[in-house]
Every structure is written in structure tokens, then in C-alpha cells.
Amino acid sequence: MGAGQLAEEVRDSDPSRALKVRAFFGLPLPDEQRDELGRYLEECARRAPQFRWTPAANLHLTVRFLGHLEVAVAEEIADRLTGADLPGFELALGEVGAFKRGRLARVVWLGLRSGEKESGALASAVEAECQRAGLEGEARAYHQHLTLARARPRDGAALPELPDAPRTAGWRAGELVLYRSRLGRAGPVYEPLRSIKLR
User: Fold this and answer.
1) Which of 15, 26, 112, 179 could be stapled to 60 by a disulfide with Cβ–Cβ 3.0 to 4.6 Å?
2) What is the dihedral of CA 28, 173, 129, 8, to 10 degrees?
3) 163 φ, ψ (degrees, to nearest 5)
């Protein structure tokens, strides 16, 4: 579905609402890496049920979370990035890490073993266009990671010892995707809205 069709869908469902979506820019994973990590996440979920583990279909590297915004603004940012001639680059996933509060982990993630500098440059370009479109600037520095799980308790949970993450093959990041995030009882569903080719 394109962004224009999305706007029509939102308008038809409730004409009184502003045409808004919950959206973000991200880098998708190739099927090979997604499948390999899916098997790994199944084992992690058995060992650490106190965390909500990301379904393999949702795995991606977030570049910029946009929040709830008007479809037209998301389209504007995507249009500018499409015309920016952004370079592709090599990516490879690294080791498991966690964002913690004291001893409790709130988010479990995979870092990068290659592509950190290049993905940081891409994030800076996206951030510049987001601010140009009127979005508030990110308060925190960009930290490249692939989210694996979030703690069920709000304050975090003790993270047991996990199996070593698979050393997946690297790949070339050739597209930046604008995703729509639909929240539901079973968790979020990510729907690609626009694909921006990286040269």
C-alpha cells in the first residue's frame, strides 16, 4: 500500500480524524538472517519468558522513530530522502546487549559488527530531514541496534544467561523503508509504506 492509499484508508475510516499514522524509518533484514534469528529467538523465549520477544517478521534496524504524525509529513520526509541519493553500505550483526535500569534489563538487542559508521550517517541524514519537516529533534544520540525483546514488567526484568547469538552473514543495506506500526493485543504489526532505494 502506498502512502496516498493509506491516507484514503484513514479518511474513509473516520473523516473527523486527522490523517495520522504511527511510523518509523528502518532497515529491513534479508530472509536468510531473519530466519536464522527467528530460530534463535524461539530458544531465547523459552529461557526468558519474562520478556516479549520480537517475532521474526518484525525484525529490523530502526533508523528513526517518527511517532504519530500526519501522513503528508511522512510523505514529505520520504520524498526528500528519495531525492537525496543516499548510499548503500555493508551491514553485519554483532553481539547481544541490553538497555538496563540497575540490574534489570528493559530492552535486549543485537549490536553491529560492521556498518556502524555508515548507518550513523544515514540516521543523521534522516534526522536532518525530519527536523526540516518540523519534527522535534531526537534528544538521545543514535545507537545502532536490532531490538530482540522488551521486558514485560515496566521497570525491567532479570535477564538470564542466553545462548550465543548466531553469527549471521553480512549483507548490503540497499533500501530504507518507511513503516507504519499498527498496535494490537498480540503486539505491533509493521507495514511497509515506502521503499527508498540506496545507491
Assistant:
1) 26
2) -40
3) -65, 155
Closest by Cα among 130, 122, 118 to 79:
130
DSSP H or E stretch at residue 50: none
CATH assignment of 3-197? 3.90.1140.10
What is the per-residue pLDDT across 60-93, written as a single tens digit (0 to 9) for each?
999 999 999 999 999 999 999 999 989 999 999 9
β-sheet with 171-173: strand ranges across: 51-53, 146-151, 104-114, 89-101, 171-173
User: What CA–CA distance (Å, rounded) separates 93 from 91?
Assistant: 7
Q: CB atoms < 10 A from the CB of 54, how many?
A: 23
- Whether the per-residue pLDDT at 181 is higher than 90: the answer is yes
Instruction: pLDDT band for 18, please (50, 70, 90 cuts).
Output: low
Q: What is the DSSP letter of 140?
A: S
Q: How many residues does the chain have?
A: 199
Q: Which amino acid is at 4?
A: G
Q: 132: exposed, middle or buried (C-beta count within 10 Å: 0-12, 13-18, 19+)? A: exposed
* Per-residue pLDDT at 7: 45
Give me the phi and psi of 114, to 5 degrees please: -155, 150
Rounded to the nearest angstrom, the gap between the alpha carbon of residue 46 and the centroid of all alpha carbons in its chain is 24
Which of these, 110, 109, 102, 111, lies nearest to 156 by C-alpha position? 102
pLDDT at 107: 96
